[in-house]
Amino acid sequence: MSKIKKNDHYYLIDGSGYIFRAYYALPPLSRKSDGLPTGAVNGFCNMLFKLLEDSKSEDNKEKPTHFAVIFDSARKNFRNEIYSDYKANRADAPDDLIPQFDYIRKSVLAFNLPSIELLNYEADDLIATYVENILKAGAKVTIVSSDKDLMQLYKKNVRIYDPMKNKFINNDDVIKKFGVNPDKVIDVQALAGDSSDNVPGVPGIGVKTAAELISNYGNIENLLNNLEKI
Predict the structure, then answer these.
(1) Range 9-169 classified under CATH 3.40.50.1010
(2) What's the predicted TM-score (pTM) here?
């Protein structure tokens, strides 16, 4: 990242999201010689190949100069040290998916792309950090992910492509989802919590109420300072 140029355009791919989409969207496959499950590997490679081909097409006016595929490093991370029940509601990966993880990472290298992960962090964390560094250098970035948490990163010079919906996310999509602009999404989530990650919010406050409060008070700090007046 130290050599980022202003005319660079980075494609950051949420590899972990791709894995589970490939696994659940496609029928199971296995290697005839030993029965090794390969459905997720096959689906992942097909999706990645299509993305690479589409990015080079004449229709794409924002062609990438760099690609990176980013993965979660493990089931648990630093958030579990802060809150032990973080994502405790999620089941372990299916038994037939687990042996495919390593092959998927190797397939990324076979595409001659960097496969990135960092112990104790999620793909989201790395993507957000890379986005900040890329923008500081004056370059552009396209995030390829269906993860709603990454919507908070949408801003000038940051595109978000949702491969599940086959569309680019815009500001209206963020407002429709969270009721606020991208820079306020983190405040709304802090109030409402996130049931998919097993993170509780303030009792009795959902996304709609949280959005109204943040819209009225600007941020959580102002809201807390005005609690006596509410």
Answers:
(1) yes
(2) 0.93
